């Protein structure tokens, strides 16, 4: 089994989709993924993404993001 770590979520109109760290050996971009709410780093590569939400903000109430 090759279980990958949850790093954050992707927000779409329909809801949140889990985002996992890339598989070992996969080719990724060297840009940070930043959270759309707090601008904190969600992950150190695979970016840039405009629809990413970090784990902390995902847990927050939508009104306080
Ligand atoms: Zn955040």
How would you sum up this structure, described in words?
8% of the residues lie in helices and 32% in strands. With 65 residues, the chain is mainly beta. The protein has one domain. The strands form 2 sheets. Strands 2-1-5 form a 3-stranded antiparallel beta sheet. Strands 3-4 form a two-stranded antiparallel sheet. The longest helix is centred in the last third of the chain and has 5 residues. It is globular. It binds zinc ion.
Report the count of strand segments. 5
Helix fraction, binned, reads under 10%
Q: Provide mean pLDDT, rounded.
A: 92
Radius of gyration based on Cα positions: 12 Å
Structural domain tally: 1
> What is the rounded distance between the termini?
35 Å
Order of secondary-structure elements: EEEEEH
Task: Note the main sheet.
Answer: 3 strands, antiparallel
- H/I helix tally: 1
Share in β-strands:
25-35%
Ligands in the model, by name, code or SMILES, are: zinc ion
Uncertain runs with pLDDT below 50, 5 residues or more? none
Which structural category do the helix and sheet elements fall into?
mainly beta
- The gross shape turns out to be globular
Strand order of the largest sheet: 2-1-5
């Amino acid at each position: 089994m090759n279980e990958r770590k949850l790093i954050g979520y992707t927000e779409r109109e329909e809801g949140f989709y889990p985002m996992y760290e890339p598989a070992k050996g996969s080719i990724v971009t060297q840009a940070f993924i930043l959270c759309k709410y707090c601008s904190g780093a969600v992950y150190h590569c695979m970016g840039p993404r405009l629809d990413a939400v970090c784990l902390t903000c995902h847990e927050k109430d939508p009104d306080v993001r």
